[in-house]
Amino acid sequence: MKLKNWKELAIGSVVPEAGNADSYNTGSWRTFRPAIIEENCIQCLFCWIYCPDSSIIVEEEKMVGFDYEHCKGCGICADVCPGKKGKKAIEMAEEGK
Amino acid sequence: MSTSLKLKELSRKEELLTGGHRMCAGCGAPIIVRQILLASDRPLIASNATGCLEVSTTIFPYTSWKIPWIHSAFENAAATISGVESMYRSLKKQGKLDKDLKFIAFGGDGGTYDIGLQSLSGAMERGHDIVYVCYDNGAYMNTGIQRSSATPKGADTTTSPAGTVKQGKQQPRKNMTKIMAAHNIPYAAQASPSNWRDLMTKARKAIEVDGPAFLNVISPCNRGWRTPTNVTIELCKTAIETCFWPLYEYEDGKLTVNYKPKEIKPVTEFLKTQGRFKHLFNPGNEGLLKQIQDDIDRDWELLLKQEACDKSN
Amino acid sequence: MGKLLAVTGNQAMAEAMRQINPDVCAAYPITPSTEVMQRFSSFVADGAVDTELVTVESEHSAMSACIGAAAAGGRVMTATSSQGLALMWEMLHIASGNRIPIVLTLVNRALSAPLNIHGDHSDSMGARDCGWIQIYSENGQEAYDNLIQAVRIAEHEDVRLPAMVCMDGFIISHSIESMEYLDDQVVRDFIGSFTPTYPLLDNDNPVTYGPLVLPDYFIEFKKAQHEATMAARDVTLEVAKDFAKISGRSYGLFEDYKLDDADIALVILNSAAGTAKDVVDEFRNKGIKAGILKPRLFRPFPYEEVGDALKNTKAVAVLDRSDSYGGFGPGYMEIASALMINSSRPILINKIYGLGGRDFFPEHAGAVLNELKEIAATGNVKTFKEYIGYRD
């Protein structure tokens, strides 16, 4: 992002673009990466309600994947996942492996 | 008109706290904020005390907030939002504004229990139509884990370190939820993000009630508590099962305990999960562990007694 | 034209506030400004104003609530003194840094310790670097006029900064003088309506106030704040011109009293300037060319104009009713800076007087003028900074 000069900035350090942090990448923080195993997913959406980074993508009431731009890899989603018959629907794997 | 508190239905609502904030991985605070913002069916205007949440969600030129939001200083989130709410009432009264808005403040335990207590007490006493939410992680985490009056007894922090003579923080926590309830406000409650439906129900009550409301929400901090990043929700659950963090609410002064564990676990089940309490398990600290358990037992019994008393009246 | 009355300074400020009719006031009682908000509270209780009054539990919360209210999108005012302003100190910077046009009546009072409730300028001078516009007033009429003008100055789109209007505690706040109030409608037409820049209550266009600004942007915001503060100088003159039309009273950046041909001059703020003027008249009667410069706009400080006004004098004394311990008085430092602009300049000395409400008598002014006369003749200075009016 090009840095603005003093005349271009909004008065008093106000940020007029609500929610523009969406364009900031925190995905690079990740050491562990969540992956979905669809056959084990019961669509409870616990991963979604417990995600600190708004990084569970839900479409039409169904968990469909992860927002890797923002997911920091904390692993809460995998931890809270009840899965099916004792098998988790989210697993964490080391990045780059 | 209100959305039912079902995850599928809630998932259709707009996310009002975006990703891309700089809170640590696994932090409890943004989970709490998300749940509260999702719970509300009213447009909210927020203020935020200086602290982790404030700093990490608004690093210029970015903001994670999709609702109007103001931070001014550390000790004054309540006073600041009371000013915003007063302007709302003034403009509405004068016919200069035709909107129905609700007002909410967020602060950590440092900004709530300690430096912001006076401002909060004043705002509650004045009866503004505001909700104050404390995300309580039990220390000054933003400045690097210093003890606050919310820090549990025995916890090792950088200003209450476990040494050879002193075993972490010497004093028990302040009971902030009761202090707020003592302001005779229409709604005060203690909640946890692990019990999302309970927290969201409480958030909704707090927002809908006419007048001041207070929510105290446990907020695990893996840096300060010295835990892995993935156990945030588990920690909350253990805190509830051990009665370290009971879930309860005061509605017009009447207490209801929202959850009673079938079998209360010993507090050591909670303490042993966290590095900040590790030293308490060293030989010689048995007495301290007993004190901590005794404090929790006494507080829990008091809570049940008060609930019974309020029910019979 | 308005009506003539005999009222106290505090009454006049409360009356100006009633006429301005702010949307929100948040305030906390403190002597000697208490009466301003007390009287204003009666206006609220009687429905004479539309204001929501927020009776906070401290001055820190007063300024915090003012900031929240002003950011929400409306006109906001408050009043305080001394310790109250000191407790606001953190928030004063935040109001100006966030470019929030709050207007504050400051009834000047000494800062503790020792505890004292009387008038000196240690409170406002201590806050001179907080980024607020500061306007000083000699008497109740000036304070009333300045408060009304301050609304226009603070809210001007080139400025958008908070402003404080200062008058002396007790000496002016509690003394009755004859003055003129403008008609309500005249005042309301003069100040006009306020259009906030980024109102928080506009939830269709949500904005974030008060983010964390790191070294990549911080100085840009401070540069913008500096420029806005400097813009207040011309805006003050523009507003004064309009004000003269409705009141017949003219104001500038400062008042020069018999300064045009003066050899010696006093620089003195607020109420004591009135006493000093009488003494200057006596000196003029004796054929001594004495004059006075009474600063009005202290922030931003009009260095060039002040430097020009004093450049032909031979010796000047700045009388400060506050001290920067270990340094010169705050007024002296500004005048010294102003004099640097021209190559011809007078010898400049500093007197600290009237702290904690100690009376400033004509003989004090007379003694200083006699000393200046001596300095002008000989060029010899005994001491550059000195306390006067105390027991030795």
What is the fold's blueprint, element by element?
The complex is a heterotrimer of chains A (97), B (313) and C (392).
Chain A: E1 32-36, H1 46-49, E2 56-59, E3 62-66, H2 76-80, E4 90-94
Antiparallel strand pairs in A: 1-4, 2-3
Chain B: H1 7-10, H2 29-39, E1 44-48, H3 52-57, E2 69-70, H4 77-93, E3 102-108, H5 109-114, H6 117-126, E4 130-136, H7 176-181, E5 187-191, H8 196-208, E6 213-218, H9 222-225, H10 232-241, E7 248-251, E8 254-257, H11 268-271, H12 286-312
Parallel strand pairs in B: 1-2, 1-3, 3-4, 4-6, 5-6
Antiparallel strand pairs in B: 5-7, 7-8
Chain C: E1 3-8, H1 9-20, E2 24-27, H2 34-45, E3 52-55, H3 59-73, E4 76-80, H4 82-97, E5 103-108, H5 122-126, E6 133-136, H6 140-155, E7 163-168, E8 176-181, H7 184-191, E9 208-209, H8 218-247, E10 254-257, E11 264-268, H9 272-285, E12 290-295, E13 297-299, H10 303-310, E14 315-320, H11 330-339, E15 347-352, H12 362-378, E16 385-387
Parallel strand pairs in C: 2-3, 2-4, 4-5, 5-7, 6-7, 11-12, 11-14, 14-15, 15-16
Antiparallel strand pairs in C: 1-8, 6-13, 10-12
Helix pairs in contact in C: 1-2, 1-6, 3-4, 6-8, 9-12, 10-11
